[in-house]
Structure formats: structure tokens, C-alpha cells
Write a structure and sequence with these properties.
Helix 3 crosses helix 4. It is built from six helices and twelve strands. The chain has 282 residues and is of the alpha+beta class. It is 22% helix and 30% strand.
Amino acid sequence: MIEFSVGNYRSFKDVVTFSMVAAPIQHEDETLDRNNIFAIAEDINLLKSAAIYGANASGKSNLVRAISFMRSFVINSAVGRRVKDPIDTEVHKLSKDTETEPSYFEIIFASSTARYRYGFEVDRDRVKSEWLYQNLGDEESELFSRDRQDINVSGNFPEGQELIKRTRSDALFLSVAAQFNGDIAIYVTHLFSRLHVISNAHDEFLWKGLSDHIMLEEHDSKKHLIDLVKGLDLGIEDIELSRTSTDPEENSFKHEIQTAHYKYDSNHKQLSLEHFNLGEES
């Protein structure tokens, strides 16, 4: 992976880019460069590793989630999902400007012979746009581009010519082409399958049981928890506990904790409180 970009997804309002391109810095110790970078072209060196630093709730885990979502959707959108199931993306909730806009994802890969730039925009219901470009040398050429169900396929992507009408509004054209054994589509999809995401972002057992217990305690326990969370500068204004009966006869209930953040308009004016499930938090 050379670059990954994401926008209007969870905590990312604007498009941000994570790049593995090494900066042109010369170190006194030449072994530092030899051990940590490698060349993929005459003018492009990539890092072998990178670290992401940031404050609490600054989006570190959400970057990992975004990569994981893109990988999963590319691999599964054509065959691994039931028709009309909601697409599992999550727009940025704290701005009125983004609540009806699609999420944006783009990635640049390199192979031994070519570079590929692929991306799409989606909301919960459909693919709004999609594109794939190939670079075999000095220039980038379009293989296909999509605006909703209007798909333009170039002569450099003949495998997609007969598949436009076979592509659902909620499926990626790339995924459909791969399912019909398109050579380029299979290769690009295979690059995604080799992109392994390892994260503990979904390990609810680390926090959910304890949080439920504290919220069910006396009022002082809840107040102390809210004060603590506010002190961590996470942007959380309140924490609420809802209780739904699951079996009235046995007096059993299901509990759900939600956090509240302020939503803003384009002038950064507070509009209202937006609620999140606890699993959406940092």
C-alpha cells in the first residue's frame, strides 16, 4: 500500500491521507535508510513501517476501521452480502454538512509492473461513485469510472464491458468484474485480500461489562464516570443508560449505554446533541 485516503467516515469529516511514501531526508547513518525504506520506482521510496500518534479520540482506531471496511467491502460486496442489506459505513455525525453525503475511500497499490489507484464513495444504500486507474509507466490511465449506475469502461478494461447491467446499485463494479474472472479485477481484489488488518478496536469484553456495571450503580458512580470522561478531552458531553425489557415475566432487561456529542454547522455553531453507541467511541 502506498497511500490510503478516507473522508466523511466516523471521526473523519474531511478527506485525510495516510501515506507510506518516505520523505527525501538524508541521514548521517546510511543504514537507517537501507533498513527502513525500499524503492518501487526511480523516484518513489516507501517506508517499511510507520507509527501513528495522536490524542485520545483523535481518530487512530478509526483509520484502522476505515481500511478494514474498504477491504471487506471490496472482497464481499458482490457475493458476501444479501441484496438490499445496508452498507456498513458510518458517516461523520457531528456536522450538518456531512450527514447526507457519502463516505469516501481511496487506496493506491503498487505491484512489480504497475500502480493502481482505486476508490469509491458510498452511503448506507448504494455506491455513489467508483473509479480505477492504472499506471504502467509515466502516465495514469483510466480503466473505469462510475457515477451511480452510469459506468464508463475504457478499452484498457475489456473484462468489464459486458458487466455494467450485472452490477447492483449496492455492489462495487470491481467486485463484480472479479467474480466474472476479469484478470485485472482479480489482481486488484487479490491485493486487498493481502491487506491484513489486526486490531483490538472491537474487543468489547475489554470495556463493556465494566461500563455497564458502573452505569447501573448509584448516581454518584455515574457522576464520577462522566466527570472522568469529560476530563479525558474526548468531546463527550454526557453518558446515558437506556433499559429495554427482554422478558417482563422474568423481569429481565437489556441495557445500552450511549454517549452524547455536540453537532455543529459549517460556522462551528452548536446545533444539538448527537448520540453514539458506546462501541463507536474511542
